[in-house]
Write a structure and sequence with these properties.
This protein is an alpha/beta fold and 384 residues long. The protein has a domain at 6-43 and 112-175 and 279-383: FAD/NAD(P)-binding domain, CATH 3.50.50. Helix content is 32%, strand content 26%. Strands 1, 2, 7, 8, 9, 10, 17 and 18 form an 8-stranded mixed β-sheet that branches. An 8-stranded mixed β-sheet has the order 5-4-12-13-14-11-16-15. It is globular, with a radius of gyration of 21 Å. The N and C termini lie far apart (44 Å). 47% of the residues are buried. The structure holds flavin-adenine dinucleotide (FAD).
């Protein structure tokens, strides 16, 4: 294992951690990623990449590859779950590029993650490294992994998700909250869908539940759906579980025939607990700093969780460049001051599950440019 001190250790090789590593390396700052999984794993899921996130992809240099991989929905539709009536519709496609300066894509999450992984230098990601302890001595951070190995780093970025070990180090133990909703996820071949044509991306709603449906590839060969359905309890020790067509039929009984056709076409479906946390009182201390789900996990109802992790990564690197690496304390302060309000707003709207239901101007979210937005002063200087 690495004997010398490394500049930045990123803990967690999810979308946020990889974005941070790529952007740091592009800025000429050494970064290594330590990921607990033994290898890269593909999840049967899709993901929205909205223009605010595509702008970071432009900065990372993988925009073209993503454009080639993903579906380019022409419009977003919000529909009544029972009648199918269109409640709101928004042009995307060329209109999104013209209005927001970047595309709106829907893509296989695995394809997105693989492109992110390819974007970092070879040997950047160390798999099979579950962080079990870390010690910030003041002059460096000592990281210990479950395989008995250890490394020394100048700075540690906690991109280790909702159960972050680094968040625990900063704020003490504390489980995320089960929100009372679960999400079903399924992906299947478009040819299996009989007698119904889907919108390119749509969200179908009733009072207490919804289903989001879209293509995940440029050729529209595969369809993905993800739901939000109330369920009173969930064992906190339990991750995702298998679900079934019957469970889906029960959850969406009486819904539009198009949704029944989607359920009929489903081969495998899983269910996931939706967890979140209240905004944290701090995002960094000493040489440790958090990003993404480690500091602001949220319900996925705005499809912006990974987007916020990726924007965080870009802002953190921007702030380190702004202050100079050695003044990381000011950089961390500047970073939090420029991210916490937006992340909390997205958390709040996601929790309320109102986004694009009846119509609104999405510019505050999609029009955000993390590389150009004017920086607000760090909290410390506001308090002086
Ligand atoms: C059903 C559902 C649908 C969603 N849809 C969307 C969407 O369409 N668009 C969107 O933007 N977001 C979406 N999200 C949210 C998104 O998945 C998360 O917000 C995003 O993955 C957070 O990224 P991250 O890098 O912060 O954390 P993660 O993706 O959780 O990555 C954390 C990484 O850290 C690793 N790790 C954890 N602990 C350790 C440790 N101790 N040592 C080493 N490694 C560790 C993990 O193995 C993991 O690889 C969805 C979420 C759900 C549940």
């Amino acid at each position: 294992m690495l004997k010398r001190k490394i500049r930045i250790a990123v803990v967690g090789g999810g979308l946020g951690g990889l974005a941070a590593a790529r952007l740091l390396q592009k800025a000429g700052i050494e970064a290594r990623v330590f990921e607990q999984a033994p290898s890269f794993q593909r999840l049967g899921a899709g993901i929205h990449i909205s223009p605010n996130v595509m702008r970071v992809m432009q900065g990372m240099g993988i925009e073209k590859q993503l454009e080639a991989a993903g579906a380019h929905p022409d419009r977003w539709r919000s529909r009544d779950g029972l009648t199918g009536e269109v409640m709101f519709e928004m042009a995307l496609g060329a209109h999104a590029v013209e209005r927001f300066g970047a595309s709106y894509l829907t893509v296989r999450r695995g394809d997105f993650h693989a492109l992110m992984l390819e974007s970092v230098k070879p040997e950047t990601v160390h798999f099979g490294k579950r962080l079990v302890d870390l010690d910030d001595t003041g002059s460096s951070v000592h990281l210990s992994f479950d395989d008995g190995s250890a490394v020394e780093a100048e700075i540690v970025i906690g991109a280790d998700g909702i159960n972050s070990k680094i968040r625990e180090k900063l704020l003490g133990p504390g489980r995320p909250t089960y929100t009372g909703d679960i999400a079903h996820r399924a992906m299947f071949a478009t040819k299996d869908l009989k007698g119904f044509t889907i919108d390119e991306v749509s969200k179908w709603w009733s009072g207490d539940r919804h289903i989001v449906v879209y293509y995940v590839d440029r050729n529209k060969d595969e369809i993905y759906y993800v739901t939000g359905v109330p369920q009173t309890t969930w064992d906190p020790a339990q991750g995702w579980l298998p679900s079934s067509r019957d469970e889906m039929r029960e959850a969406f009984a009486g819904w539009h025939p198009g949704i029944q056709a989607l359920i009929d076409a489903t081969r495998e479906v899983t269910k996931w607990p939706l967890m979140d946390r209240d905004p944290l009182p701090l995002w960094s201390r000493g040489r440790l700093v958090l990003l993404g789900d480690a500091c602001h996990p949220m319900k996925p109802h705005m499809a912006q969780g990974a987007g916020m992790a990726i924007e965080d990564a870009a802002m953190l690197v921007r702030c380190l460049q702004e202050t100079g690496f050695d003044d990381y304390a000011t950089a961390f302060n500047l970073y939090e001051s420029n991210r916490s309000e937006r992340a909390s707003r997205v958390q709040r709207v996601s929790k309320n599950n109102t986004w694009l239901r009846y119509g609104e101007d999405p510019s505050w979210c999609f029009g955000y440019d993390v590389f150009k937005v004017p920086l607000v002063a760090p909290k410390a200087s506001i308090e002086v």
